Amino acid sequence: MQQLSSASLGPRLTSDAKRGGIAPLWVIADEEPLLALESADAIRSAARGLGYEEREVLTLSSNSDWNQISVAVAAISLFASKKIVEIRLEPLPGYPRQRGAFGSWLHSDRPGRGHRDCDGS
C-alpha cells in the first residue's frame, strides 16, 4: 500500500484517471477530519469522472457484520454499472482492533474473490 499526502493526492488521481482508472481501494486516515474529508471528496470526484454513478456508505464498528461489505460490493443497481462503496469505521475504544479486523477481512480469500493487495494487484 502506498501512502500519499493530501497534497499529492490530486495529481495522482488526475494521472491515474488519464490512464483509464484509479486504484480500486483507498484507505483514508488522518487525524485532521477536514483533510480526510477533502481526500474522500477528491477520490469520489475522480471516480464519478470515470463513470462511478452509485455510492453506498457503510458505517462499521467492531460489533458490525463485516459481511455487509461483500454484499454492498456485489449489489449493483439496474441504473449504474459502477459503484463506490465507502466504509467508515466508528472511532470507538476498540479502534485498533477494528483496523485489524478490516485488514484481515480485506486480505482474506472470500468466496468468489481472489487475494488482492490494496493497490489492486
Short characterization:
The protein contains four helices and two strands. The chain has 121 residues and is α+β, with helices and mostly antiparallel strands. A two-stranded parallel sheet has the order 1-2.
How would you describe what is shown here?
Strand 1 (54-60), helix 3 and strand 2 (83-89) form a beta-alpha-beta unit. Helix 1 (6-18) packs parallel to helix 2 (33-49). By secondary structure, this protein is an alpha+beta fold. Helices cover 42% and strands 12% of the residues. The radius of gyration is 15 Å and the shape is flat. A two-stranded parallel ribbon has the order 1-2. The chain contains four helices and two strands, in the order ααβαβα. The longest helix has 17 residues, at 33-49. The protein has helices at 6-18, 33-49, 67-74, 95-107, and strands spanning 54-60, 83-89. Residues 110-121 have low confidence and may be disordered.
Structural class: alpha+beta
**Radius of gyration over C-alpha positions, nearest whole angstrom:** 15 Å
Largest β-sheet summary: 2 strands, parallel
Global morphology: flat
What portion of residues is helical? Answer: 40-55%
Unreliable sequence segments: 110-121
Q: Write down the overall mean pLDDT.
A: 76
N- to C-terminal separation? 10 Å
Number of strands: 2
Name the strands of the widest sheet in spatial order: 1-2
What portion of residues belong to β-strands? 5-15%
Strand-and-helix sequence, N→C? HHEHEH
Counting DSSP H or I runs of 4 or more residues, the number of helices is 4
